[in-house]
Design goal:
Layout: E1 14-16, E2 19-21, E3 28-32, H1 40-52, E4 57-61, H2 65-77, E5 82-85, H3 93-96, E6 102-105, H4 119-132, E7 136-142, H5 148-153, H6 158-175, E8 181-186, H7 190-203, E9 209-211, H8 221-235, E10 241-243, H9 255-268, E11 284-287, H10 298-309, E12 319-323, H11 329-332, E13 338-342, E14 346-351, E15 354-360, H12 364-379, H13 381-384
Parallel strand pairs: 3-4, 3-10, 4-5, 5-6, 6-7, 7-8, 8-9, 9-10, 11-12, 12-13
Antiparallel strand pairs: 1-2, 13-14, 14-15
Helix pairs in contact: 1-2, 6-7, 7-8, 8-9
Length: 387
Amino acid sequence: MSQTASQRNPTRAVRVGGIQMGAGAPIAVQSMAATRTQDIEATVRQVELIMAAGADLVRIAVDSSKDVEALATVRERTGATLSVDLQENYRLASEVAPHVDKMRYNPGHLHHHEKEKTIAQKVAFIAETAERHDCALRIGVNCGSVDPRMMERYDGDHATAIVASALEHCALLDAMGFSRYVVSLKDSDWKKVVAVNRAFAQERPDVPLHLGVTEAGMPPDGIIKTRVAFEQLIAEGIGDTVRVSLTVPFDDKGQEVTVAREILRDIAVGRFRSVPPGMDEGLNIISCPSCSRVENERFIELAQDVKTMTAYAKEHDITIAVMGCRVNGPGETDDADLGLWCGPTAVNLKKGPEPLGQYSYDEILGRLKVEVDALIAGRAPHATGVH
C-alpha cells in the first residue's frame, strides 16, 4: 500500500470521518456487515470483527425506520467509521445521516419512489442532507440495477449505461456545489469492472473511485476474480478505496479485509499473479457477500451447497447466480443461465430473466440440478448436429 501520489490518478481529496480518500492517500479498505441491522448485538460484534481485521470503514444496510433506530444504537457502541446503504428509499438519508460518516445511494433506485419528483430533486435532497450532517457520499452504480432511463438510451448496453449514469450524477452533484463524493461502478464480471472503471477514469480522473467486483462469490474463485480486476486497475493508478466481496460465514467476514490488504501489498511491491489458464471458461458461480438484507441465513449454506452439487459441471460454460435478497436478487440474476434469489421461506429459481417458480430450501438443489442437466444436454454436440 505504498503507492505514491505520482503513481495514482490525481483524484481530489474526499474526507470520510477521519479518513481521506483520494489525493494520494493510502487506499482505504472497507467491508460490509452481513447481519440484520436490527440485531444490534450481532451487528456491533461484526463491525468490531471487521475493524479488528484491519478495515478503515464498515458499511451497514438500512431499509426501514426500525433499522435506523438500531443504527443509532450501533453508532453509540462503536467508534468505527461507518457508511450506510440507503437502498431503495432515498428519503431515509435524513434519518441515517446523523449517525454515519458516509452514505451510498444507487442512481438506479431513485426512480422507485416519489415519481412526481425529478432525479435532480432527489439528488439535491441527498446532497443537502449530507452537507448538513457532515457526510460524504458514494454514487454506487450497480450492474443489476442500472437506471432504466440509461438502459433505454443506450439500447441495453450495460457498460455504457453504467458509465453514463455515474457521469450524470457527478454532474448533478457538481452543479449543486457538492464535491465530497466518490463513485463506484460494479459488476460481477471482473472484465466489465475493469472496462467501466477505465472508461470513467478517463472522463473524470478527478473523482476518487471505490473498486469492487460485486457478487464475486466464494473463496478461492471470488478472491481470484477480485485480484485480477484490482491488479489491472490499481496498477494503472485507478482506485482510492476497495472492497472485496466474498460469500463467507459470519465469523470469517474479516477475510474480506485481510484479502484486500494482501492484494494491495502485492501490487505495491510489484508482485502480480497471472490470470489462471481457463479462468473464464467452465462453470461460473456468482454469489453475493450477504448483508442485512438477507432474509434467511441459510443463503450462505445454500451457496456452498450449490458449489458442491454442481462440481460435476465444472467443464461446462454455465453461469449460476445465488443471491441473498429481494433487492438485488431479481435484477442481478437476469444475465446468469440460472439464478437463485432467496426469500424468508423459499428460493426463487430463474432461467435467465424467466421465472421458473419458488422452491423450499430443501427442494431447490434437486430442482436446480434438473435445470443444469438440461442445459448440459442442450449444449451437447449431438444436440446441435455436430458429430
